[in-house]
Amino acid sequence: MAQIRQLAAIMFTDIVGYTALMGEDEKKAFNLLRRNRELQKPLVSQFNGKWIKELGDGVLTSFQTVTDAVACAMKIQQECFSLPDLQLRIGIHLGEVVFEDDDVFGDGVNIASRLQALAPVGGIYISESVFRNIDNQKNMETEFVKEEILKNVKHPVKIYQVKKHDLYTMLSYGTGIAQKKDPIKKPVEKSIAVLPFVNMSNDPEQEYFSDGISEEIINSLVQLPDLRVVGRTSAFSFKGKNDDLRSIGQKLGVANLLEGSVRKAGNRIRITAQLIEVSNGFHLWSQKFDRELIDIFDVQDEISKAIVDQLMAELTRLENPAVSKTPGRNVEAYNLFLKGRFYWSKRNADGFKKSISFYEEAINIEPEYAAAYAAMSDSYSLICAYHNLSPEDSILKAREIAQKAVAINKSLAEGYEAIGHVELLYDWNWEKARQYYAQAIKLNPAYATALQRNALLSALFDKYEEAMEGIMMAVHHEPLSLIINTDVAIIYFIQRNYTEAIKKCLTVFEIDPAFGVALFICGLSYEQLGQFDQAISYLQKAWEVSHNYIGLGALIHAMGKSGKKEEAMDLLKELKHASSITYVSPYTFACAYLGLGDLTIALELLEEAVNTHSVWLVHLHMKSDPRIDPLRSEKRFKHLLAKMGLH
Predict the structure, then answer these.
(1) If 0-12 CB within 10 Å is exposed, 13-18 middle and 19+ buried, where does residue 512 land?
(2) What CATH number does the domain containing 236 carry?
(3) Last residue of a domain, one of 444, 459, 491
(4) Is residue 298 domain-shared with residue 397, that is, in the same domain?
(5) Averaged over 4-29, what is the pLDDT?
(6) In the 8-state DSSP scheme, what is residue 120?
(7) How far is residue 454's CA from residue 438's CA, in Å, rounded to a whole number?
(8) What is the spatial distance between Cα 175 and Cα 262, in angstroms, rounded to a whole number?
(9) Which of residues 444, 475, 496 is at a domain's end?
(10) Nearest residue to 225 (alpha-carbon basis) of 162, 301, 312, 164
């Protein structure tokens, strides 16, 4: 066949982590390769492309137009979000290439391959020639990344990234009912996000301290009226990244950003802080603080006051806006508290255990440290949900500790929320839980966790409009919080609107494809739609990333319902073995046995779960968990609901 030289858009895709998977599980790797082929081939054809060849786990295709190539790449990545194990990088270049014998050669192929290798997971990198051809396409937004010298390419290549279409809009607005709430339409003038301060100390272990500085400033600014302050979780999602500040501001929906750094050496600290206007990148204010460590609380107050002087007076229309001074505390206890918060934020069982240890040390030094008590209560509540301690050994402690926090400081929102959480999880005292959440929200209207949990409580009692309004207000304050956005999906799940639940989970995967709770809810939703292969895939991934036994119980249920009884029984043996070593909720076992069709044992286990106050009875909203449906007509089951106050 003769050579044909022509201009073409070359697309190169590659499976992330395939080589490592091949070494671990050859069968699973080949199955992933097959799924990748089945996904891409029809889409390449749909967008008028030519399937040229596969190179290991890579795929080389060509298109006559750049628009078709980019549209195909966007569709491929969109489809991948529904496949938890399949993650791709994509590179596209427009250039002159040579076609010969159903193959293609030239710099165009090489550049597309190099761009693919540089692209982020789930991302699409394009060259400048591609960018110029789609710059006027409204549904193909791009941003410049960098200029790079690529291997075996003579001249530097300007690299652009195709933005994930409408990602942050979906996270902020949600879908269905959530769209009506419009929590963030555009960056508002009276708004600010405090980015995590960079640890400039020689010791990486000091990272907890720089994180703590940022969080304390957030806590100070949130007290100001008429000012929207983005919460810690969303602001800290940009930690360690080099995103453009204007892009960060747009994603968070704020007009102003505060960034800075902390250098700690011995008893001396140097803190730098800059206030930036997002729209133009201008520095409104910057300052450097050199202090003794003993003055750290004064420095926090000074930074907050400086920001107020520069910006907030105008925005809040107050003549003399004031930020409450940080209460005087022991510096050593404060350091320990920050370490506790650092490990708590890791959101895993080991992190919760370490956080409790540091909070206890802080309280030993400063017995009246209310914030440490409230934080420790939250760690005890969460560690129970992660199947590390029984409710008796964790939730009862959480209640006692939270009550101590409120006794010390009656204006501490976190303390009231922590008590409300115990009333919800353990006591099933729904009205008291709502009262405590309401008090926490009254003290701090921007407290996203209280808004979030109060919304879930509303959903439990079929108040869906109220629930969605509350959860979207939580999203308003924490637009990029993975757990809060996943809770939007949970509310849809409670309504048995499984399609919308899946859609919402998919938006969360665009931020973190390995977020365990979203994988879990997505798997449960697919199961209820009868799509068992998808359900098992998501639930298996949820179990692998979280090692929370509630996920293993759900996987057993899905396998049992799909007819894979032998595999389900093998996993049940694993679950039983785990229960001989650590706490596993009877609710988890009940779900497993329901999937295997043993309703009698499942009912006995649910009775045990109620008698021992398993937190998962409420966290999964027993009233709306469709896996329990086979038991709903049983008198013994109705008696259990009555004991929980769920009629």
Answers:
(1) middle
(2) 3.40.50.10070
(3) 444
(4) no
(5) 83
(6) P
(7) 8
(8) 40
(9) 444
(10) 312
Residues near 256 by beta carbon (within 8 Å), at least 6 away in sequence: 191, 192, 193, 249, 275, 276, 277, 278, 284, 311
- 3-state helix, strand and coil shares in percent for the chain, rounded to the nearest 5: 60, 15, 25
- Mean of the per-residue pLDDT values of the chain: 84
In Å, what is the CA distance from 482 to each residue of 233, 515, 588, 620, 641? 9, 8, 24, 17, 31
Closest to 434 measured CA to CA, from 419, 412, 414: 419
Q: Model-level pTM? A: 0.69
Compute the distance between CA of residue 613 and CA of residue 607 in angstroms, rounded to an integer: 10
What span, in angstroms and rounded, lies between the C-alpha atoms of 607 and 345?
A: 34
Co-location of 136 and 229 in the same domain: no
For residue 370, the enclosing domain spans: 328-444
440 neighbors 401 (Cβ within 8 angstroms): no
Q: Give every CB contact of residue 71 below 8 A, 6+ residues apart in sequence.
A: 47, 140
Lowest model confidence (mean pLDDT) among 78-87, 161-170, 193-202, 515-524? 161-170
Token duo for residue 128: 């400048």
For residue range 305-342, list pLDDT tens digits in order. Answer: 676 666 555 454 444 544 444 454 677 888 788 788 87
| HEC letters along 437-494 | HHHHHHHCCCCHHHHHHHHHHHHHCCCHHHHHHHHHHHHHHCCCCHHHHHHHHHHHHH
Q: What is the biggest distance separating any 2 CA atoms in the chain, rounded to whole angstroms?
A: 86
**Three-class SS state of 292:** strand
Please report whether residue 483 resides in a domain.
Answer: no
